[in-house]
Amino acid sequence: MKPLLLAAALLVAGCSTASPIRQSQESFNAAYGVVAGNTDTIVISSSPPYVQVTVVDKRTSKVHTRCINAYSLLGALELEHGLPVGSHAETLRLALTNKERRFEFTKLAALARLAISYADAELEVMRQRLAPYSDAELATGFGGRGTLQSLLDGSPADRPRAYRDAAACVLIDRGFSPRIADRTGALVIYR
Questions:
Q1: Which residues of 169-185 are buried (b: 16+ CB within 10 A; e: fewer)?
Q2: Cβ distance 15 to 64 under 8 Å?
Q3: Residue whose C-alpha is closest to residue 158's, from 186, 117, 122, 188
Q4: pTM tops 0.70
Q5: Looking at the structure, do residues 14 and 51 belong to the same domain, yes or no?
Q6: Cα(50)–Cα(43) distance, rounded to whole angstroms?
Q7: Is residue 33 located within the same domain as residue 92?
Q8: Based on the domain organization, do 105 and 13 belong to the same domain?
Q9: In this predicted model, what pLDDT tens digit does every residue of 124-150 receive, in sequence order?
Q10: Is residue 89's pLDDT more than 90?
């Protein structure tokens, strides 16, 4: 299967129906470096943040809510709207002005940018693993050199990011702003 088709297939695989968005607008904006609504001071970080969005595949009518790398969303919007590569201001405007965070796509290349690494089963595993921990324990355990990284072990070998990305979604549901550490690839969170 061609890489683009495989990525689009992974996007659809294991999709559930659309769930409510639990990430606050403030956290969503902060993922793009927007603080207090000031879009003049956008910061693109080397530590990619996660955002929670609803993706609509207009070709198939499939709708699902997932947590993805925030920069992947910008790349998908760029492709979908035929914008030049690096159109950060315009793609950021498209992302930030969509207050429902429900994004519709028709182009396979754009959908491929939004491919998810985890299935519903892996999301449920991470919900169960993280449920016993208080918010304070999660903040410490996933902060910098936290001790909870070992909870992400056990992901299928063919999809090593699955538990990390699923855990990010659980953490968003709990009110955190997770990121991928730029040097280690570990999951880190901020409140």
A1: bbbbbbebbbbbbeeee
A2: yes
A3: 117
A4: yes
A5: yes
A6: 14
A7: yes
A8: yes
A9: 999 999 999 999 999 999 987 778 988
A10: no
**Statement to judge: residues 109 and 38 lie in one domain:** yes
> How far apart (Å, rounded) are the C-alpha atoms in residues 16 and 26?
25
- The answer to whether 154 and 163 have CB atoms below 8 angstroms apart is yes
When comparing pLDDT for 31 and 8, which is higher?
A: 31
Q: Ramachandran region of residue 36, left (φ > 0), alpha (ψ -120 to 50) or beta?
A: left
Structural domain including 60 reads: 3-113
Q: How many domains does the chain have?
A: 2
Domain finish residue from 49, 79, 113: 113
Which of 97, 113, 129 represents a domain boundary (last residue)? Answer: 113
The H or E element spanning position 188 is strand 187-190
Residues 131 and 52 both lie in one domain: no
